[in-house]
Design goal:
InterPro entries: Rad17 (IPR016587), Rad1_Rec1_Rad17 (IPR003021)
Strand order of the largest sheet: 6-2-3-4-19-18-17-10-14
Order of helices and strands: EHEEEEEHEEEEHEEEEEEHHEEHEHHE
Distance between the termini: 46 Å
Shape: elongated
Number of strands: 20
Number of domains: 2
Helix content: 10-25%
Keywords: DNA damage, DNA repair, DNA-binding, Hydrolase, Nuclease, Nucleus
Function: Component of the checkpoint clamp complex involved in the surveillance mechanism that allows the DNA repair pathways to act to restore the integrity of the DNA prior to DNA synthesis or separation of the replicated chromosomes.
CATH architecture of the largest domain: Roll
GO molecular function, one term: damaged DNA binding
Strand content: 25-35%
Number of helices: 8
Radius of gyration: 23 Å
Pfam families: Rad1
Structural class: alpha+beta
CATH class of the largest domain: Alpha Beta
Length: 370
């Protein structure tokens, strides 16, 4: 009798897995991805130069069959695979017009990671030699949740379009400019590009339906800070790696702590996933029984990246001057720090009627992932 492998899972949602893994390609399509298997599903992680890291989770609800029997209940199984090798196999099988059942199987250290593709006519098996690289070093890439400076939740397509526009104008450095008006309670969130053409800005919409949450803190994750801009700078080459993930996002949470680390948490609803092309989308919708499970939470992604450097004072002043010109002289006293008095602070328990006009703070009914 042949013993069952410690892990095997079966799914028909190959297009969904391809969509998810394509989010990793900006981090190095020919690089190694670290796969972690646990009782809740699979996670895929990559890192670039210890400056930016991505972790993507596919929960067990995506699979019709999911079996994991580790040596101990709390143990994890980790293995490294080439991303391009896995994508090549999935894409070839996913191009067929029939329902393809894919089984993933792995039996621990020293054994191959196997993909088995099966339809009504043929069964194919692909084996990958495996090895475990040293685990990803998370030093400096863990968010300090007790010392946040900035936090917002924005619609995914809005951020994706903004990042795409920055690419079109040849952005080299991207500045995040955020400020909260105490008088109107309205936020201002801008992405400012420095390129060969100089400075240019993209003002993100601040409607409640688009910018669901927007808070600037006094370095403590609790005390709200008004009329005091938060400015940080990122290398656009690194920041652009987020764009593929933002393309499939329903909501994106951006947080930055006092140490210059920004995390981008991406959650998509299954109905919002963009297919690689219309033909594949129509084919998938036409296949009976191939819709994603209703209890499947969607693709969950976390990206952590370090700020390029503290913004230089001349750059900060140049950005402030540009934003003053944008906001106009009438708004100047509302958005810039008061030079005579320290910035005003309020606690989270401010009266709700203060937010009744203008921008409304986000409710607490946010997805559990956030």
């Amino acid at each position: 009798m042949i013993d069952s492998p410690i892990f095997y899972a079966t799914t028909v949602h190959l297009d969904h897995i391809v969509t998810a893994l394509n989010c990793l390609t900006p981090f190095g399509v020919k690089g190694e991805m670290l796969i972690t298997i646990d009782k809740n599903g699979l996670s895929f992680a990559q890192e670039n130069n210890h400056v930016i890291k991505i972790q993507l989770v596919l929960s067990r609800e995506l699979f019709q069959t999911f079996h994991y029997s580790p040596i101990t209940e709390t143990s994890l199984t980790k293995v490294s695979l080439r991303l391009d090798h896995v994508l090549d196999s999935l894409n070839i099988s996913n191009d067929r017009n029939d329902i393809i059942e894919c089984t993933l199987t792995y039996n621990g250290d020293g054994s191959p990671f196997i993909l088995i593709f099966e339809d009504n006519m043929i069964t194919e098996s692909v084996e990958y030699s495996t090895y475990l690289l040293k685990d990803l070093d998370n030093t400096g890439l863990v968010l300090d949740r007790t010392r946040l400076q900035f936090e917002c939740i924005i619609k995914g397509d809005v951020l994706h379009n903004a990042l795409h526009d920055l690419k079109e104008i040849g952005c080299k450095d991207c500045y995040f400019y955020a400020i909260h008006n105490e008088t109107t309670k309205k936020p201002l969130f801008a992405l400012i590009s420095r390129s060969q053409q100089g400075l240019s800005k993209i003002i993100l919409p601040n409607e409640r339906s688009i910018l669901e949450k927007f808070e600037i803190y006094a370095n403590d994750s609790t005390t709200l800070l008004y009329d005091h801009p938060m400015i940080s700078v990122f290398d656009y080459g690194m920041l652009d790696k987020i764009r593929a993930s933002a393309r499939i996002a329903s909501k994106i949470m951006i947080r930055r702590d006092v140490h210059g680390l920004m995390t981008v948490n991406i959650l998509n609803e299954t109905k919002d996933i963009l297919r690689p092309n219309d033909q594949e989308y129509k084919r998938t919708r036409a296949i009976s029984g191939n819709n994603l499970p209703s209890h499947y939470p969607g693709i969950i992604i976390e990206i952590c990246m370090l700020e390029k450097a503290l913004p230089e004072l001349p750059d900060v002043n140049e950005i402030k001057v540009m934003m003053i010109e944008y906001m106009g002289s009438e708004s100047r006293h509302n958005f810039l720090p008061n030079t005579q008095q320290p910035p005003k602070k309020t606690a989270h328990d401010d009266k709700e009627e203060e937010n009744s006009d203008g921008y409304e703070a986000a409710s607490q009914d946010l997805p559990l992932f956030f």
